[in-house]
Design a protein that fits this description.
about 200 residues, two-stranded antiparallel ribbon, PadR family transcriptional regulator, Tscrpt_reg_PadR_C, WH-like_DNA-bd_sf, Tscrpt_reg_PadR_N
Amino acid sequence: MSTQHALLISLIEKPSSGYDLARRFDRSIGYFWHATHQQIYRELGRMAEHGWIAAEETDQGGDANGNAAPNGEEKKNRKKVYHVLPAGRDELVRWVLEPGAGLDQREEILVKLRADAAIGPLGLADEMRRLIALHQARLETYQAIERRDFSDARQDRGQQLRFALLRRGIRFEQDWVAWGNELMPLLAMPAGDRQD
């Protein structure tokens, strides 16, 4: 998957300025595909060069926060709102139908645990506690989204798919936290007590 394809999806869902897109991305696709705000702006430029998206400039009265200009003066701010062109939709369809790369599971902690198994106790318990806390926090975020956005039983197909993605995230985080907690006693065990 590329960041460009993730951005195309977000822009199909809702045309947005670069700033609004970056904020929305962080709260949706960003949970499973990370991109910095700088990267998003760079990719928007490349996507426009490919003819996948276009920006429409809009005038906004007042200041950047939408407040009226002082003394009744009309102050105009330009804002670029990006939307997907037919070529962008075609590219997204092409990418969706292309076979995926498969099982990409690059988790740094798994390699560190393998090193701990090979070398001996390396003191990974604090790092595991930190990661368990991060996964627990992400789980709680997902569960809050579930309560907020998916309480209505009458959902269209798009909502059902978004809910299925969220449920996958919830299950992943639940499993990660359970696995991490099961691993903690082993990380506290001295090297001589481990069975090879």
